[in-house]
Write a structure and sequence with these properties.
The complex is a heterodimer.
Chain A: H1 4-16, H2 27-48, H3 50-55, H4 60-68, H5 76-89, H6 98-107, E1 108-109, E2 117-118, E3 123-127, E4 130-135, E5 138-143
Antiparallel strand pairs in A: 1-2, 3-4, 4-5
Helix pairs in contact in A: 2-4, 2-5
Chain B: E1 5-9, H1 15-19, E2 26-30, H2 42-49, E3 53-57, H3 71-84, E4 89-93, E5 95-98, E6 101-107, H4 113-127, E7 134-138, H5 152-163, E8 166-170, H6 171-181, H7 185-191, E9 197-202, E10 206-208, E11 211-213, H8 222-234, E12 239-242, H9 251-265
Parallel strand pairs in B: 1-2, 1-12, 2-3, 4-7, 7-8, 8-9, 9-12
Antiparallel strand pairs in B: 5-6, 10-11
The chains are: A alpha+beta, B alpha/beta.
Chain lengths: ~140, ~270
């Protein structure tokens, strides 16, 4: 028999990373939990990234779930940030969400791997037509897309 | 424990509302949202100055994890308890990560001997660093493990006895689990050591596709309030609190929910 640690890891993989439902579990109920978890995360990310969520209107949950289904959470700040950057990379970030991302990018250094931290020097960053400037920790939006 | 009566989960979004509850004596804060050494959020230090007891509620220790609980998380919980002058702390009988991956939610552990041993060991590691008691909360779950050996009453009672921990009873979790499993919520009340209850959570939920979800973002349904009343008929706990985590309604609606908990438990209204 596999260890409790391994069985807990398979269950987490099924719920967050597209893994198979471990043997013996009720597939319908685990699926309901997986969907509920994505819905909860969508709400948390929307609180952290309100413009990003609003820019998709009623399609936010679907857009979020498509991206997040196989990506375990890194916390809602990083989750929203990773999604926004991914959208930029596909040229799919709505213009209404550009200012929020540009301001965060100007304010903080985020390497995509660890917790974002405040930038030491000044920075100008753009996203989806918006441009933000940060000097000495103060962020100003130069252009809204 | 002192009878605190009706309390509320303090969250930054409703800090203004909580600050204006004249009769409040009990509040809870998510432990991971409080800095161990920096300044307390303004609303929280005001509550402390008013003499409101504030209990840190951990959500990320993962006491039910097969791996030992991370020492830094225990240290943080203990420091926050000291910072708040809290009479106790609380956490869940659940795991939230495995193999380095965060689940993002509280997940059930098997009701097996192996899992009981793991959770008991983690609770004891935590207790060793705390200067106040810990209360453990059984969670709401949409599914169970296939290898459950014990029923929920026996499982929880054994964990409490072996750790000498207090019980944080969430009546909404009992309601949700019973509804989804097709059992009677009062059956579990009959099996639990109610005299060990430190305080009670009361929260709302919603039904999707025939499954009841304990969301904490919806209104408290009447059957949950009925269960509060039923619990208090058997043994009235020292404190019962409203737990709301999002989609905050207008102040009047929160006030109505607090009053409903007061009326169901027989404690004075705090509004």
């Amino acid at each position: 028999m596999t260890s409790l640690a391994e069985r807990q890891a398979s269950l987490v993989a099924a719920l967050t990373a597209g893994g198979a439902v471990p043997p013996g579990f009720d597939g319908r109920l685990v699926e309901a939990a997986r969907v509920a978890l994505l819905r909860k995360r969508a709400g948390e990310v929307a609180r952290q990234w309100p413009e990003l969520a609003r820019s998709f209107g009623g399609g936010w949950l679907r857009e979020w779930a498509r991206w997040a289904a196989a990506r375990p959470t890194q916390g809602s700040l990083r989750d929203g940030w990773d999604l926004a950057r991914d959208l930029v990379g596909r040229d799919a970030l709505p213009r209404a969400a550009g200012a929020e991302l540009a301001m965060r990018e100007a304010a903080m250094h985020y390497d995509g791997e660890s917790a974002p931290r405040p930038r030491r020097g000044p920075a100008v960053r753009g996203a989806a037509g918006s441009v933000a400037l940060q000097i000495a920790g103060r962020v100003r939006l130069l252009r809204r897309g | 424990m002192i009878a605190y009566g009706v309390g509320i989960g303090w969250r930054p979004e409703i800090a203004g509302f909580v600050a204006q509850l004249p009769g409040l004596k009990f509040a809870e804060v998510v432990a991971e949202s409080v800095h161990a050494h920096g300044d307390l959020p303004v609303g929280l230090s005001e509550l402390r100055n008013r003499g409101v007891a504030v209990v840190p509620h951990g959500v990320k220790l993962s006491l039910g994890g097969a791996e030992p609980v991370e020492p830094a998380r225990i240290t943080h919980l203990a420091a926050v308890a000291d910072r708040l002058g809290a009479p106790l702390v609380s956490e869940h009988i659940a795991f939230v990560r495995a193999g380095g991956v965060e689940a993002g939610h509280l997940l059930p552990i098997p009701r097996s001997r192996e899992a009981i041993d793991a959770v008991v060991a983690n609770v004891k590691r935590t207790q060793a660093e705390l200067s106040v008691p810990i209360a453990l909360e059984p969670i709401a779950t949409l599914f169970d493990w296939p290898d459950d050996e014990l029923d929920e009453g026996a499982f929880l009672t054994e964990i409490l006895e072996r750790t000498d921990a207090l019980l944080l009873l969430d009546v909404a979790n009992i309601y949700a689990n019973a509804l989804n499993r097709g059992t009677e919520p009062t059956e579990l009340l009959d099996r639990l050591p109610l005299e060990r209850i430190a305080y009670v959570h009361v929260a709302g939920g919603a039904e999707h596709d025939g499954i009841y979800h304990d969301t904490h973002t919806d209104a408290v349904p009447q059957p949950v309030l009925d269960l509060v009343a039923e619990l208090c008929r058997r043994h009235r706990p020292p404190a019962l609190m409203l737990e709301r985590d999002g989609d905050y309604p207008a102040a009047a609606e929160l006030r109505t929910e607090l009053d409903a908990i007061a009326s169901a438990s027989g404690y004075p209204a705090v509004t």
